[in-house]
Amino acid sequence: xxxxxxxxxxxxxxxxxxxxxxxAGQGKTAESKAAEESSAEERSAKKHPTGEMRGLSARAYADxxxxxxxxxxxxxxxxxxxxxxxxxASTIGADTPLDYEKCWGAVETTKECIDGMRAxxxxxxxxxxxxxxxxxxxxxxxxxxxxxxxxxxxADRVLEDGMYAVINIHHFDEYIIKHKTKEEALEIxxxxxxxxAEYFKDYPDYLVFEGFNENLGSxxxxxxxxxxxxxxxxxxxxxxxYAYVNEMNQKFVDTVRATxxxxxxxVLIASGYWTNIDNTTKDSFVMPADTAEDKxxxxxxxxxxxMYWSRNVGGKxxxxxxxSQCELLKAAFIDKGIPVFLGxxxxxxxxxxxxRGAEITESSELMKYEMQKALDYGFVPVLWDxxxxxxxxxxxxxxxDSDAAVIKELAENDKSEISKAA
Length: 422
Hints:
The chain is of the alpha/beta class. The chain is built from 14 helices and twelve strands. The protein has helices at residues 30-37, 40-44, 58-65, 97-101, 111-120, 145-160, 172-179, 182-200, 238-258, 277-280, 305-309, 316-332, 363-376, 401-421, and strands at residues 68-70, 124-127, 164-168, 207-210, 221-223, 229-232, 268-271, 296-301, 340-345, 380-383, 391-392, 397-398. It has an eight-stranded parallel β-barrel, surrounded by four helices. A two-stranded antiparallel sheet has the order 5-6. The protein is globular and about 55 Å long. One of its GO terms (cellular component) is cell surface. Keywords: Carbohydrate metabolism, Cellulose degradation, Glycosidase, Hydrolase, Polysaccharide degradation, Signal.
């Protein structure tokens, strides 16, 4: 699996850090304290957003989703365990949702944090989730009620601000695929998505489901006693691997649709083969069949990925590569009426990734080029970000003034273009 662009500095050495929440040094808000103290029964009785489905096309939804921000290293955070065979995750701290939310260095996600994302110009917040946290090691794969309630609290805040919330299965998909047979992985996927979809089935269409993260295309592995990969437990041909990818996406779509309610028409995002553009645009990757008409998108990551890792950012080769990747996506999906969800896009370009003699050398301008290119092609670009990196979750603002100006400009221009089209 591709290593994340930006790793939280605290990942390797900090576990369950009690960091300051709120904004501008305010600490925890009265609302956040009350949420911690409330019982599971009180939270489950809370009125969640409900709403009618507007019946828009996937293209129309994609246009409204605009540009987005990831709530990274937060709900998808977990601590690896070799003893828990069901979830692969350790019990952390007092085993509360906030213990996991903060264990990779994030702060508690407050209302002010989400409000600040909206004010910055974002229209979509992607909420990656490791659903195995707080899950019993009994093989039933029952999602913990307190944990899903906490995910819902944050999704509610996103929707209350008029933004789109995207929820997926993140990292837990990797655990399932690499530790289970194909048949088991498909079964567990159905068990998980049935629970998630049932919980959120009355939510309005501003809530979107994304099936997986980056691990469709992987398969069962062998492990040593410390949980490290030894090699392939099962060898699949390319044809068999693509069939597995397609079946996982189909299981996701079928399971969600079968729950009814608003899920019968909700926008769903099928995940690409490793979310890699070259792999996902091959004919062997097949979009799932769907009982809803025109309600599917496809997810890939980073339209300049190879240039980033080869330290070739900023020059003509980088521009040409970005263009060629966009053209692949256009031919495979956009031209067929299937919107492209760029679930992760680079937010900050480090100096060592920029090629000598680059035409563009400033991180803000590099980010602007990639985001604008994505918007020009009709994609939904969502910046990958972790706590206190691009966006400060304690100050509730984009940290760099030049980055903030770019996001504001892109958001305003995008809305203007949509208005003209309408």
